[in-house]
Amino acid sequence: MSTLLHIDSSARSGGSISRELTASFAQQWQAKNPGGKIIHRDLAANALPHLSESLLGAYFTPADARSAEQAEVIKQSDALVDELLAADTIVIGVPMYNFAPPSTLKAWIDHVFRAGRTFKYTETGPVGLVTGKKAIIILSRGGKYSEGPMEALDFQGKYLKSALGFIGITDVELVVAEGVSMGEEAAKAAVADAQAKINAAV
Fold this sequence. Notes:
The structure is a single chain. This protein has helices at residues 17-32, 53-59, 68-73, 75-86, 103-112, 157-166, 184-201, and strands at residues 3-8, 37-42, 89-95, 119-122, 125-128, 134-141, 171-178. The chain has seven helices and seven strands. The relative contact order is 0.17. A hairpin with a 2-residue loop joins strand 4 (119-122) and strand 5. Helix 1 packs parallel to helix 7. The longest helix is centred in the last third of the chain and has 18 residues, at 184-201. The protein is an alpha/beta fold. The chain has a single domain (3-47, 75-201), classed as Rossmann fold (3-Layer(aba) Sandwich), CATH 3.40.50. Strands 2-1-3-6-7 form a five-stranded parallel beta sheet, sandwiched between helices. The protein has a two-stranded antiparallel ribbon with strand order 4-5. The chain is globular, with a radius of gyration of 18 Å. Residues 3-200 form the Flavodoxin-like fold domain. Its EC number is 1.6.5.-, 1.7.1.17. Keywords: Flavoprotein, FMN, NAD, Oxidoreductase.
């Protein structure tokens, strides 16, 4: 059975372009995979805790040597990793906040980037363990960062594509809706262009 991991990170529950576009992708994916399963992870409605000393300690302690506290604190991280590993396709909605993804999405990354589970260290360097998956990252941003003087401030899509590649997800497509705060017509055109790319990607 095919599985889609659908992640939203916008702080807005309504009026969010990234949510609108991820929902469109998920709807089309379900239509093409009627027997498929969708796991929806809303990082705003159910924010994950940021890294703590106890969680870091649990990450680097073998499972059979963890304390009761470590075994408890790592349960959520293990569940998130299991969701990621179970998925064939991942769609992530990512608005740009202060030139970067929301901190809620960074928290998710900190929970699922786990040595021994999603990557491993070898004599020749780290190797990703999350392979054979397709990721579609839907980016929304008020200004234009694909080119021109603001390009140097784009720590959104480039970061996520590099990060996912580190754990082995190298089939990554960036769908960008930018300039959405530059007037109604610009916003409509940006969303329409992104929607066309989503239609082609499903």
